[in-house]
Amino acid sequence: MKNVTSPPVIPCPFCALQCGLTLQETASALRVVGAPSDPISGGHLCRKGLSTIEVLNHTRRIQNPMARINTEESLAPATWDGALDLVAERIKAIRQRWGADRIAVYGSGALSNETAYILGKFARLAIGTREIDYNGRFCMSAAAKAYTTMLGYDRPSGTFEEIRHAQVLLVVGSNLSDAHPMAMRAFQQAQSQGATLIVVDPRQTRLAKAADIHLAIRPGTDGYLAWALLNTTIGDNLINHDFIRSRTNGFDAVKLVAQQYSPENVAQITDIRPQQIRTVARIFAQSAHSLFLHARGLEQYHHGVQAVSAFLNLVLATGNIGRPGTGAIMLTGQANGQGGRELGQKSDQLPGTRPIDDPQHRAHIASVWGVHSEQIPQSGRFTAAEFFPAIERGDIRALIVVGANPLLSAPDSAGVLRALRKLDLLVVLDPIWTETAELAHVVLPAGGFGITEGTVTTVEARITPVPAAPRNLRPSLACQDWKIIKELANRLGKGYLFPYSHTRDIFDELRHATKGAKADYSGLDWDALFQGQHMHWPAPEGLWGGTQRLYTDTFAHPDGKAQFSTMQPGPSLESPSADYPLRLITGRQGPHYNSGAQTRYISGLSKTPTDVLIIHPQTAVQFGVENGQPVEVCNTRGTITLTARLSQDIRPDTVFASMHGPFNASVNHLVPSEPLGLSGMPEFKHVPVSVRPVVPTINLSLEREPSIASR
Ligand SMILES: Nc1nc2c(c(=O)[nH]1)N[C@H]1C(S)=C(S)[C@@H](COP(=O)(O)OP(=O)(O)OC[C@H]3O[C@@H](n4cnc5c(=O)[nH]c(N)nc54)[C@H](O)[C@@H]3O)O[C@H]1N2
Ligand SMILES: Nc1nc2c(c(=O)[nH]1)N[C@H]1C(S)=C(S)[C@@H](COP(=O)(O)OP(=O)(O)OC[C@H]3O[C@@H](n4cnc5c(=O)[nH]c(N)nc54)[C@H](O)[C@@H]3O)O[C@H]1N2
Ligand code: SF4
Ligand SMILES: [Mo]
After folding, report:
1. Nearest ligand 3 atom to alpha carbon 48
2. How many CA atoms lie within 13 A of 18 on its CB side?
3. Residue 589 Cβ < 6 Å to ligand 2
4. Which of 233, 447, 544, 701 is the most exposed place for a label (fewest CB within 10 A)?
């Protein structure tokens, strides 16, 4: 009898919800079907999820290892051995001449846990460099810093169960209707049970339209709003005295600071009426089941850490954490944005979110890796955005990019281009051609949807199995990242430190490496995960299934208490001026994904243009712009041309463009790369610009092209 097995449930390759799906072959076609067992999506998929077959057969899939000796030559197909030998020889030569720290590794939240882990180990032990950081620096770093400092763990305080149980949902700077579409189900459920939804966003997103209260805040001023909410809460004596006394430190200092931020004092800055601020403060503080959620609209600011911290103060002061329907949820973005930041890709962390400068943590990792502590390099000098100026200065001479497209997604595109062109060695591991890969010396077809096998950690800190696609559906030539990294380690003479023959071996090692750390994966079980068991970290040995809700009776600090923060908000780096009067916000569109490298070439998604500028009709009149007209958007750093789309759904002083456009239309031509915020975050969401219509040029030249008749 034929053995009938059900197709494996594979997580969607796009956002951090990681909705489960199966690839089903019928006689005539291959179909993508949502997995009904999925706890968030319940078997539904958004447009991107439904397009995953095209990710599998992507038109821009890298078919072969490609290499060139110098960038004047074209990239040419190479054998795996030839390409890997070239990379290893170059690394050795650069290391010998300039030192290992001149070689940097640029990782990603798109990678599996196992790849993220092995990449950090490879950088630090096989290359011997201290310079590794990753694209999540642009994503989760501000939230990570605030949460770790105040609460202890770099993860949301609970799962989406909290959304379903909440009575008040305060959502700040998240366009989750486009960025985490399947999360809308949990919100709809909460609202149908009577929850009040409050959305803070300069734009009227679909989520904002569904809200009971929408605060169309002036961009970059949420920190002020948060302090004013706290000011009202204290003034009305709606704080939770017992909670503050027994579970927190530092409230007295915070109370003093909050006095400065009356609703009247911040009304001008935030453009929100004092009465509205009071109303929201009272709704949030009077419910014992209030939940705070946020995404990059709060965080991708120069004062992003401060802004998140100010809202966490409000959560703590009202005691809204550690119980069902309460807490703080950072909406992680990338597929493995959560695991990617825990397992050693950050310049200052070792696996488990261990601080790299802590001798005890270094000793533990050294024992797992079988080396002496001194062999583990110290903290990197540069975070992701700082790599590019460092390359221009000659402080970095080689860059290995794994799962990212910084030419489009890092700030100051012109600077990034100059830097990438200056490198002695640029290596890119990616399943598809990116704009960054086109500049590389060596391109290796790696990992990605269908190829990668291992685990990822979702927006809920839920560790999720990633099976490879059935063999007949796998793209042929790509190779799993860890195998490529292992091969490179062999060639660098460090193969003995990478003795893996299966992804599971890496998983088991990372369990030991994280044992006793905050992001503790030691109690996880590969077989149980692949059999569908849900497991969340922290998962110390013996705690089957791990921890869903944190902080039920203790915070992750030595004394078990949460720490209030007196960090205060501040202005954006650049203020609108007569020359650049509009505030440009950059972010997401539903059908596209991040640098757009994948989605601009997927037929069902590419129909939605990426080069659009959303502008209020009133502003359009003021600037002489018509709907559908090409417009130049410029500041001192550059000019890009987009197509105007008039919409009432945005503040008149603000315009919006997505980050998904191709190089020439990339908004990052306009975004400054420095100074960076406290966490290394660029200010992606506040760029003063001017907008002018492109006037069609008329050729007035008298010399005409010879017409056929005159020949
Ligand atoms: N479709 C799609 N989904 C994605 C992605 C994608 O590229 N496309 N990328 C994934 C990734 S990596 C990430 S990080 C997430 C990002 O998910 P989100 O952070 O939700 O998406 P963004 O569009 O970056 O910004 C969210 C909202 O912040 C608002 N905003 C801007 N400035 C401010 C402000 O000063 N205050 C407030 N309160 N709001 C502000 C914007 O108007 C926008 O609606 O999405 C993930 N999911
Ligand atoms: N202006 C502006 N810029 C921004 C932002 C913004 O809001 N505005 N947001 C920032 C944020 S939040 C983020 S997260 C970054 C994201 O920016 P990027 O880092 O450029 O992200 P992607 O375009 O998702 O690129 C991920 C790449 O990884 C590849 N990949 C997928 N899976 C694998 C795998 O298993 N192995 C390997 N080797 N490769 C794989 C994909 O094919 C893709 O090419 O952009 C940041 N840049
Ligand atoms: S919501 Fe996110 S994970 Fe789910 S199908 Fe859409 S892109 Fe994929
Ligand atoms: Mo992100």
Report:
1. 7
2. 30
3. no
4. 701
Pairwise pLDDT comparison (241 vs 706), residue with the higher score: 241
- Going by pLDDT thresholds of 50, 70 and 90, the confidence category of residue 4 is low
What are the DSSP calls for 430-452, one per residue?
Answer: ESB--TTGGG-SEEEEB--TTT-
- For ligand 1, atom 3: residue with the closest CA: 179
Query: Could you give the CA distance from residue 366 to residue 362 in angstroms, rounded to a whole number?
Result: 6
Asked if 34 contacts 45 with a C-beta cutoff of 8 angstroms, the reply is yes
Per residue, the 3-state secondary structure of 20-76, as one string, reads EEEEEECCCCEEEEECCCCCCCCCCCCHHHHCHHHHHCCCCECCCCEECCCCCCCCE
- Give me the helices (H) in 559-674, please: 603-606, 617-622
pTM for this structure? Answer: 0.96
Q: Residues 699, 701, 703, CA angle at the centre, nearest 5°?
A: 130
How far is ligand 2, taken at its centre, from the CA of residue 678, in Å? 22
CA dihedral of residues 82, 83, 86, 88 (deg, nearest 10): -110
Distance 585 CA to ligand 1 centre (A): 10
pLDDT of residue 3: 47
- Tell me the pLDDT of the chain averaged across its residues: 96
- Rounded to the nearest angstrom, the distance between the alpha carbon of 297 and the centre of ligand 4 is 11
**Residue 648: DSSP 8-state:** S
Which residues have a Cβ under 8 Å from the Cβ of 557 and sit 6 or more positions away? 152, 563
Mean pLDDT for the stretch of residues 67-85: 94
Q: Whose CA is nearest to atom 4 of ligand 3?
A: 19
Q: Which atom of ligand 2 is nearest to the CA of 587?
A: 7
For ion ligand 4, residues whose CB falls within 5 Å:
139, 333
CA distances from 386 to 226, 672, 679 (A): 30, 12, 12
CA neighbours closer than 13 Å in the CB half-sphere of residue 330: 32
pLDDT tens readout for residues 228-239: 999 999 999 999
Helix (H, G, I), strand (E, B) or coil at 667: helix
Contacts of 530 (CB under 8 A, 6+ apart): 465, 467
Q: How many helices and strands, by DSSP H and E, does the chain display?
A: 26, 28
Query: For residue 708, what pLDDT is reported?
Result: 41
SS3 501: coil
